[in-house]
Design brief:
By secondary structure, this protein is of the alpha/beta class. The chain has two domains: 67 residues; 80 residues, Winged helix-like DNA-binding domain superfamily/Winged helix DNA-binding domain (Arc Repressor Mutant, subunit A). The strands form two sheets. Strands 3-2-1-4 form a four-stranded mixed sheet. It has a two-stranded parallel ribbon with strand order 5-6. Strand 1 and strand 2 form a beta hairpin. Helix 4 crosses helix 5.
Length: 192
């Protein structure tokens, strides 16, 4: 992934209690913008992902990116942080994915939604699978909290960082569980 001037992306690594996070970014119109957030996956660290998928990226930061990385770290320790989309390069996503990601971004801390409810909210009844696909490839996890969407049967579903990380994030936000993989309660967002 390169920016519009074909310059390699810069990367800023941030250590967190859930493992290192990488913020891939570039400058557009004299402003830093986030192209991608990478979280560790089961058996694959962010460093391995960056070296394999973005080998030409250079380690670099600036005040705005460093501040964002600090906010991500604070969020992962349990602080109630609401991220702005101002620095996010959503134009790297399809129009449909942008719509899904914006809807996901509005789900408040301590609440969850389902793929089907988001599809209905976006006037795409029957589009739960398409919503799931858009969230599975969310380039901005944590900033756009895709961990807050579960299956309609309340099962956790998937997550880039693995389901144990997804559960931990939801528990940290106050979401209750009825068993190891299912959320409990009627705290669903976008429920009409």
């Amino acid at each position: 992934m390169k920016n519009k001037n074909n310059h390699p992306l810069s990367v800023c690594f941030q250590n967190t209690i859930l493992g290192p996070v990488a913020v891939l970014w570039s400058v557009r119109e004299d402003q830093p913008g986030v192209a991608r957030i990478l979280i560790s996956k089961p058996k694959l660290t962010t460093e391995q992902i960056v070296s394999g998928s973005y080998p030409n990226s250079k380690i670099s930061s600036c005040t705005e990116i460093h501040t964002l990385a600090d906010q991500i770290e604070a969020f992962l320790t349990g602080e109630d942080i609401r991220f702005s989309l101002d620095m996010i390069q959503l134009d790297r996503c399809t129009t449909f994915q942008q719509t899904v990601l914006r809807a996901e971004h509005t789900i408040p801390r301590g609440r969850v939604s389902s793929y089907g409810l988001i599809a209905k909210y976006l006037n795409h009844p029957g589009g739960a699978r398409a919503v799931g696909t858009a969230l599975a490839s969310n380039p901005f996890p944590i900033i756009i909290p895709c961990h807050r969407t579960v299956r309609s049967d309340r099962d956790l579903g998937g997550f880039q960082g693995g389901t144990p990380m997804k559960r931990r994030l939801l528990e940290m936000e106050g979401v209750a569980f009825r068993d190891k993989t299912h959320v409990s309660g009627d705290n669903f967002f976008y429920l009409r």
